């Protein structure tokens, strides 16, 4: 192992080769190592064992049906109060119209997450899903974070399991991974004190999995959390995945530092560094041995770094998206959308095999292997 410069990683290399699970201490060693080349190799080895050269993406549309929210998370620049000029709030009919306006042939996944609106009645939500499924039968609706599900349980006065059951009956295909932030209480109290608690977030995903619904998990990093708190977050997710096997992907979300009170209070104007983004993805790939995919989210880390991340454990790069407001409200400089051809090219240029998937991770099309001779 000529390439290994950090002797502390030697036992980890052996474990990864043997397909064995890392302990918490070993996970921390990965976070602290300065041997980034070794970290990259470990993550890539793990990724290639699972997926070979394949990298997955989806032809998708994002829609935030309202930005009105009463929760007040300090990292958020997206939320507006009712009556504010920049507030929007679509009825179920308007949601269908918005989708019709942006619809492109071949889109499979509609990803919706939005604010916790103070006035919508429970019926608004299943009706929206039913209308969407009725109008666009090929669209797979991935919507409502665990935080939103808890909000719906409050307004419907139903248990969260029942809320999930009714949304599933209305046609909900899967749940996105938002609202997880950082599970550790110390951080949660400062960044999302009115939002779903960590245990409840996990419980809602456990319930969704018990109904056969697959979900994702995110982690918002690059603000006030420590590296231990990041790994603790992953550790809790790994535990739940052992129980249920219901997670598709883990998605680190790089903190976007503009226009929110958390960044202002911290005096923070810098984005996360490229190396921290890559390190975080790689640690996740090795530590979350039971997660099928680690997603590199180009909206928050940029498409250039997302392309590089394909050597750092990433096997999924989300989708074409069309329009996104949560990250862009907080300063994201990425474009609003990527084309399908652009995503294929981005993966091929990295020497990988692009696989178009749907929201259930069915493989719809495998694109040709990149031409090694081509300059671009
Ligand atoms: O829950 C809010 C985060 C999430 C900021 O499941 C911020 O496939 C960074 O969950 N900087 C919503 N992040 C987005 C989300 C997501 C994204 C992509 C894919 C999937 C998936 C899910 O965005 C929120 C919150 O954690 N967020 N503000 C910010 N300033």
From TrEMBL:
<comment type="function">
    <text>Radical SAM enzyme that catalyzes the addition of the adenosyl radical to the double bond of 3-[(1-carboxyvinyl)oxy]benzoate, leading to aminodeoxyfutalosine (AFL), a key intermediate in the formation of menaquinone (MK, vitamin K2) from chorismate.</text>
</comment>
<protein>
    <recommendedName>
        <fullName>Aminodeoxyfutalosine synthase</fullName>
        <ecNumber>2.5.1.120</ecNumber>
    </recommendedName>
</protein>
<feature type="binding site">
    <location>
        <position position="73"/>
    </location>
    <ligand>
        <name>[4Fe-4S] cluster</name>
    </ligand>
</feature>
<keyword id="KW-0479">Metal-binding</keyword>
<dbReference type="InterPro" id="IPR034405">
    <property type="entry name" value="F420"/>
</dbReference>
<dbReference type="InterPro" id="IPR013785">
    <property type="entry name" value="Aldolase_TIM"/>
</dbReference>
<comment type="pathway">
    <text>Quinol/quinone metabolism; menaquinone biosynthesis.</text>
</comment>
<keyword id="KW-0411">Iron-sulfur</keyword>
<dbReference type="InterPro" id="IPR020050">
    <property type="entry name" value="FO_synthase_su2"/>
</dbReference>
<dbReference type="InterPro" id="IPR006638">
    <property type="entry name" value="Elp3/MiaA/NifB-like_rSAM"/>
</dbReference>
<keyword id="KW-0949">S-adenosyl-L-methionine</keyword>
<dbReference type="InterPro" id="IPR007197">
    <property type="entry name" value="rSAM"/>
</dbReference>
<dbReference type="InterPro" id="IPR058240">
    <property type="entry name" value="rSAM_sf"/>
</dbReference>
<keyword id="KW-0808">Transferase</keyword>
<keyword id="KW-0004">4Fe-4S</keyword>
<dbReference type="InterPro" id="IPR045567">
    <property type="entry name" value="CofH/MnqC-like_C"/>
</dbReference>
<dbReference type="Pfam" id="PF19288">
    <property type="entry name" value="CofH_C"/>
</dbReference>
<dbReference type="Pfam" id="PF04055">
    <property type="entry name" value="Radical_SAM"/>
</dbReference>
<feature type="binding site">
    <location>
        <position position="76"/>
    </location>
    <ligand>
        <name>[4Fe-4S] cluster</name>
    </ligand>
</feature>
<dbReference type="InterPro" id="IPR022432">
    <property type="entry name" value="MqnE"/>
</dbReference>
<feature type="binding site">
    <location>
        <position position="69"/>
    </location>
    <ligand>
        <name>[4Fe-4S] cluster</name>
    </ligand>
</feature>
<keyword id="KW-0408">Iron</keyword>
<feature type="domain" description="Radical SAM core">
    <location>
        <begin position="55"/>
        <end position="292"/>
    </location>
</feature>
<keyword id="KW-0474">Menaquinone biosynthesis</keyword>
<comment type="similarity">
    <text>Belongs to the radical SAM superfamily. MqnE family.</text>
</comment>
């Amino acid at each position: 192992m000529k390439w290994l410069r950090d002797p502390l990683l030697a036992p980890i290399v052996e474990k990864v080769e043997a397909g064995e699970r890392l302990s918490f201490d070993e996970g921390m060693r990965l976070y602290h190592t300065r041997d980034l080349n070794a970290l990259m190799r470990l993550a890539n080895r793990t990724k290639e064992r699972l997926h070979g050269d394949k990298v997955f993406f989806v032809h998708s549309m994002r829609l935030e049906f309202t930005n009105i929210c009463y929760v007040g998370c300090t990292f958020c620049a997206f939320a507006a109060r009712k009556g504010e000029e920049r507030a929007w709030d679509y009825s179920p009919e308007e949601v269908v119209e918005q989708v019709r306006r942006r619809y492109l042939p071949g889109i499979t996944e509609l990803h919706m997450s939005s604010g916790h609106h103070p006035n919508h009645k429970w019926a608004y939500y299943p009706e929206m899903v039913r209308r969407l499924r009725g109008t666009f039968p090929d669209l797979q609706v991935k919507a409502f974070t665990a935080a939103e599900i808890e909000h719906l349980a409050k307004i419907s006065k139903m248990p969260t399991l029942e809320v999930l059951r009714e949304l599933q009956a209305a046609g909900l295909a899967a749940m996105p991974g938002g609202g997880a932030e950082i599970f550790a209480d110390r951080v949660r109290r400062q960044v999302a004190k009115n939002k779903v608690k960590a245990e409840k977030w996990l419980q809602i995903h456990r319930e969704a999995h018990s109904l056969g619904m697959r979900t994702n998990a995110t982690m918002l990093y690059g603000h006030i959390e420590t590296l231990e708190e990041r790994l603790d977050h992953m550790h809790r997710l790994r535990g739940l995945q052992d129980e249920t096997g219901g997670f598709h992907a883990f998605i680190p979300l790089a903190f976007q530092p503009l226009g929110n009170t958390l960044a202002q209070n911290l005096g923070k104007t810098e984005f996360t560094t490229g190396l921290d983004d890559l390190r975080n993805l790689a640690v996740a790939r090795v530590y979350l041995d039971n997660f099928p995919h680690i997603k590199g989210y180009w909206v928050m880390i940029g498409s250039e770094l997302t392309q590089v991340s394909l050597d750092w454990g990433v096997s999924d790069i989300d989708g074409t998206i069309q329009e996104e407001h949560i990250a862009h409200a907080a300063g994201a400089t990425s474009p609003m959308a990527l084309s399908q051809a652009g995503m294929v090219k981005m993966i091929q240029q990295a020497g990988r095999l692009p696989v178009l998937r749907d929201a259930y991770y069915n493989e719809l099309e495998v694109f040709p292997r990149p031409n090694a001779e081509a300059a671009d």
